[in-house]
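Bench notes, bay 3.
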Amino acid sequence: MPLKSYLNKYLRKLSSSEREISFSSVTGRYGKFTLYCILGPKENIVHLTLAADKHRKALQQLSSINPHISNRALQMKDFPYHSVFQDYFSGKLSDFPISVESPFLQAGTDFQKKIWRCIKTIPYGTCITYKRLAELAGSPKGSRAAGTACGANPVSLIIPCHRVIAVNGLGGFAGGLAAKKALLVLEHAGRNSAISPGQSSC
């Protein structure tokens, strides 16, 4: 089912529950990191990324579904998960106590969903290769497709795709390689680990 269908389904669910169909977007700056988030009703995270262009595209996809959808810019101080991400980026938090209901997640292909589930099992402070990720998802020859699925991840950090690297380097990352390397260094430092971002712990 295409993304538009899942977005419509999500909006119908909100309408039937008599919730206001409104979204909030917030840009949060945490040291060297910039986080872009879209929140739905009940403070539900719909989309989360470190890439501004990916954030803009998600907002456009939401607004194109229904002209009555409102989106307001939320100040960082009013972001309900500000303290959670502040703790993560300061090395105090290794696991996000956040559940998400996202049509962007639901619209993933079966393979993408399998890859995203596998990524969620990668422990904090460790990393695996795209090749190993594909093997875990049952597609030993699908390392390239696994990389594409990582790039399509709609909730960065909560699904920690930055922990997936290439055999001989960092690989790609929607938020930029500098951010990916910094995230890995942050997590390794948080665990007092000697693993370098260019290596796999698995």
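Next record in the batch:
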Amino acid sequence: MKPVAILILSFLILSCSESEESETLQLQDGLPQTWVLVSFNAGLSGEVFSGENLPYHESIRLNTDSTFARTRVQDNESTTVSGTFEYGQISNDDFLILHNTEENDLIGNCTRSLEEWFVFHTPTNMLGGGLPCDRPGLGFERIE
């Protein structure tokens, strides 16, 4: 089964299953939060960039009213997008789900939808993007 099909199937299972609260899902109690891009996996090439070598700088601000603002700075130009967010869970994996209000170049997924999923590795570290379909994978770290 292709990785894209597995990813889509996992998302469908989430929408049909009951969600159990976990330690990571309690993160909402700590809002607002700011997350910054700390790693960039180029996908098919396998190259991973971090620190000064990142192709751009990006941050995600999660607000207490379940809205987010995501800002990318590349080549001295800034782009900000917004929408709402929620937490979800598949099996024992906790996710942050961003619901963008409109199509934009910052969305990183395999489905071309307005949703983006980020899996939490720890309460201060998450990974998202389109890595399962050979698009860049993005690693974020919570700074506040």
